[in-house]
C-alpha cells in the first residue's frame, strides 16, 4: 500500500504544478469566468459520489451517497451553464449578430 | 484490454479536457471553447463511471442526477446576470458539501480499526475542508444576495474565537486518528461548518468575490482528498488543478484590488465606517437635473463613463449604451473606464456591457483609461463609488488606501448617478461626492439614464 500512496502523491504534486502553470496570465475580465469554469471542474466529485453510492452497503451510506450525487450534479451543471452564459456575452460582440434591439433574456 | 483499463483511459481523456479547459478559459478568444471542452471531459468521465464493474444502485444514481439537473439547469439559466456572483458561490458550496459527504460515506464503509492512519487522515481532510467550503460559501451567498448585511460582522475577541475553533478542529482530527469513531467524524464536520461561518462573517461585501475564489480553491483540495480516499487519479488531478489554479487566481484578484489575501481574510475591512479621517456630516452636495447634465454631456468633447454595481442592479447597460450612441452621433468622444473589480466581481462590467453590444474598443481597462482622464470634460459615474474614491490615493488611514482607482477626480466635471448618499459596498464615505466640480443625479440608474437620453434627444 505504501507504493500506492506514493503514486497518488506523485500525481498530486505534478497536478499542482500544472495548475499553477496553466493559468499564468489572465486578463482581469476573465477572472470571474475562469473562477466559474474551474468551479464546474471540481464538480468531478460527482464521479466520486457515483462510486460511493454505487458501492453503498448500509441504508445510511445510500442516503448520504444519494445526497452527495444531487449536490455534485448541481455543482457540475450549474457551473458549466453559468460559465457558458457569462462567455456567451463575449461571443455575441464579435459575431455582431443583428439582434440589436436592446432586448435581453431575463 | 480490460474494462477497468478502458475506463481509466477515458478518465485520462477527461483530465486532458480539464487542463485544456483551464488553459482556454485564460484567454479571451478561446474561453468559450475551453468551457465546452471542460464540459465534454466531464460528460466522458461521468459516462465512463456507469461502466465501472460492480456499480450498483444505478436507479438511485440516475435519480439523484435527475434531481440535480432539474434544480441546477433552470437556476443557472434563469438567474439574472447581476446575480451571477452568488450563483458561483452556491454552486461552489454544494461541491464542497458533496466532497465532505463522499469522505464521510467512505469512512462509514470501511473498517476503521484495520485502516492505516494516513487513509483516515485523507478522509478527515476531505470532511473538514469540504464542510468549511460549504458553510463559507453559504454565508458568502447570503451576503451577496443581501439576505444578511454585506458589512463585516464583528464581535469582541473574534480572532481568538476563530483560533479556538481552529484548534478544536485540530484536536478533533488527532482524537479521531487515535480513536476513529463515526461520532467523532460527525462532530468534526459540525466544527468545520461552524469554522466556515465564523471565518466569513467578518469579511466585507466588497471582498466576498476574492473569498469565493479562495473557497473554490478549497473545494478543489477537498475533491483531491476524496480522490486519495477513492484511489482515483481523475479526482486527484481535477481537484488539485482547481486547488492550485484557484490559489493563483485568488492572489491575482486581490492584487487587482491592491490588497493581500491575509489582509482580506483577517482585517474586517470596512468595519470602521468613519475611517478616513474626515467628518462629513453637515456637508452639502450639489444635486442637478437631467436637463442640465444633458447639456453638459452633449457639448463636451470627451466623456468617460465609469460604470459600477449600481448600473448592474438597475439593469441599465442598454440605456447607458443608448446614451453613449446618442452622444457619439453628436461627435462626442465617448468611452468606458472599467475598474478591474467594478461591480461585485472582476469582469462583471465587461460581461454586462458586452451583453448590451457595447463595442469592445470602447471598453478601456483602468490602466489604459487613467492617463486620459485629465483630458476628459465629463466623467459620468454610473452607480460606482468605492472604485473612484480618492481616499484610496491620499488618505492612508482609509481602509481602501492603496487600492488603484479610476481617476474620475481628474476630469473637468464629475457627474454621479447614485440612488442615495449611502456609502458604497466598502462602507466608506467618498470625498469626491462633495467636490466643487461634482454634481449628483439621484435616483435609479436606469430611470436617470432614460431621462438623460430624452433630454439629449430634445436638445
Task: Report on this structure.
The complex is a heterodimer of chains A (106) and B (459). Chain A has a domain of 69 residues. Chain A is 75% helix and 0% strand. In chain A, 58% of the residues are buried. Chain B has two domains: 264 residues, no CATH class; 169 residues, Rossmann fold (3-Layer(aba) Sandwich), CATH 3.40.50. In chain B, strands 3-2-1-4-5-6 form a six-stranded parallel beta sheet. In chain B, helix 14 links the parallel strand 2 and strand 3. In chain B, helix 5 packs parallel to helix 7 and helix 11 crosses helix 17. Classes of the chains: A mainly alpha (106), B alpha/beta (459). Chains A and B meet through helix 1, helix 2, helix 3 and helix 4 of A and helix 1, helix 2, helix 3, helix 4 and helix 8 of B.
Descriptors:
heterodimer; A: 106 residues; mainly alpha; 4 helices; B: 459 residues; alpha/beta; Rossmann fold; 2 domains
Summarize the amount of helix of chain A as a percent range: over 70%
Radius of gyration of chain A: 20 Å
How would you classify the quaternary structure?
heterodimer
SSE order of chain A in H/E notation? HHHH
Strand tally of chain B is: 6
How many strands in all of chain A?
A: 0
Q: Tell me the number of helical segments of chain B per DSSP (H or I, 4 or more residues long).
A: 17
Amino acid at each position: 500500500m505504501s507504493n500506492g500512496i506514493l503514486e497518488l502523491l506523485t500525481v498530486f504534486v505534478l497536478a499542482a504544478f500544472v495548475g499553477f502553470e496553466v493559468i499564468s496570465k489572465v486578463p482581469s475580465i476573465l477572472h470571474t469566468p475562469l473562477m466559474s469554469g474551474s468551479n464546474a471542474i471540481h464538480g468531478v466529485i460527482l464521479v466520486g459520489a457515483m462510486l460511493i453510492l454505487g458501492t453503498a452497503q448500509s441504508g445510511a451510506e445510500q442516503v448520504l451517497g444519494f445526497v452527495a450525487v444531487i449536490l455534485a450534479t448541481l455543482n457540475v451543471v450549474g457551473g458549466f451553464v453559468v460559465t457558458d452564459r457569462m462567455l456567451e456575452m463575449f461571443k455575441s460582440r464579435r459575431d455582431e449578430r443583428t439582434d440589436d434591439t436592446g432586448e435581453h433574456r431575463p | 484490454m480490460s474494462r477497468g483499463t478502458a475506463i481509466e483511459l477515458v478518465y485520462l481523456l477527461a483530465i486532458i479536457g480539464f487542463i485544456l479547459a483551464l488553459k482556454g478559459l485564460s484567454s479571451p478568444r478561446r474561453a468559450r471553447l475551453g468551457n465546452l471542452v471542460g464540459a465534454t471531459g466531464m460528460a466522458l468521465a461521468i459516462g465512463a463511471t456507469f461502466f465501472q464493474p460492480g456499480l450498483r444502485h444505478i436507479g438511485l444514481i440516475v435519480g439523484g442526477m435527475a434531481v440535480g439537473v432539474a434544480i441546477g439547469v433552470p437556476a443557472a439559466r434563469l438567474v439574472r446576470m447581476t446575480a451571477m456572483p452568488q450563483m458561483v458561490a452556491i454552486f461552489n458550496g454544494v461541491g464542497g458539501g458533496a466532497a465532505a459527504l463522499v469522505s464521510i460515506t467512505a469512512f462509514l464503509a470501511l473498517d476503521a480499526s484495520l485502516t492505516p492512519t494516513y487513509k483516515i487522515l485523507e478522509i478527515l481532510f476531505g470532511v473538514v475542508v469540504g464542510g468549511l467550503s460549504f458553510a463559507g460559501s453559504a454565508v458568502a451567498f447570503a451576503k451577496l444576495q443581501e439576505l444578511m448585511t454585506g458589512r463585516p460582522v464583528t464581535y469582541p475577541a473574534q480572532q481568538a474565537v476563530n483560533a479556538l475553533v481552529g484548534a478544536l478542529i485540530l484536536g478533533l482530527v488527532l482524537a479521531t486518528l487515535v480513536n476513529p469513531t463515526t461520532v467523532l467524524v460527525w462532530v468534526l464536520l459540525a466544527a468545520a461548518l461552524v469554522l466556515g461561518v465564523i471565518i466569513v462573517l467578518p469579511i466585507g461585501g466588497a471582498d466576498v468575490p476574492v473569498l469565493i475564489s479562495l473557497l473554490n480553491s478549497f473545494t478543489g483540495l477537498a475533491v483531491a482528498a476524496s480522490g486519495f480516499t477513492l484511489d482515483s487519479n481523475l479526482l486527484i488531478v481535477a481537484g488539485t488543478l482547481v486547488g492550485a489554479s484557484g490559489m493563483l487566481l485568488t492572489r491575482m484578484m486581490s492584487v487587482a484590488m491592491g490588497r493581500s489575501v491575509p489582509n482580506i481574510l483577517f482585517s474586517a475591512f470596512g468595519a470602521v465606517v468613519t475611517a478616513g479621517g474626515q467628518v462629513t456630516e453637515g456637508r452639502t452636495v450639489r444635486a442637478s437635473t437631467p436637463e442640465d447634465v444633458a447639456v453638459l454631456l452633449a457639448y463636451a468633447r470627451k466623456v468617460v463613463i465609469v460604470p459600477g454595481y449600481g448600473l448592474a442592479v438597475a439593469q441599465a447597460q442598454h440605456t447607458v449604451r443608448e446614451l453613449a450612441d446618442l452622444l457619439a452621433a453628436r461627435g462626442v468622444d465617448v468611452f468606458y473606464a472599467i475598474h478591474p473589480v467594478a461591480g461585485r466581481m472582476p469582469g462583471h462590467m465587461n460581461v454586462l456591457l458586452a451583453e448590451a453590444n457595447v463595442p469592445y474598443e470602447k471598453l478601456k481597462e483602468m490602466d489604459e483609461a487613467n492617463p486620459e482622464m485629465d483630458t476628459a470634460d465629463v466623467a459620468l459615474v454610473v452607480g460606482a463609488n468605492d472604485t473612484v474614491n480618492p481616499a484610496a490615493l491620499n488618505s492612508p488611514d482609509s481602509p481602501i488606501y492603496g487600492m488603484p482607482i479610476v481617476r474620475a477626480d481628474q476630469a473637468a466635471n464629475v457627474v454621479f448617478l447614485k440612488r442615495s448618499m449611502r456609502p458604497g459596498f466598502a462602507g466608506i464615505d467618498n470625498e469626491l461626492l462633495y467636490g466643487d466640480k461634482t454634481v449628483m443625479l439621484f435616483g435609479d440608474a436606469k430611470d436617470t439614464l432614460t431621462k438623460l437620453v430624452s433630454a439629449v434627444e430634445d436638445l
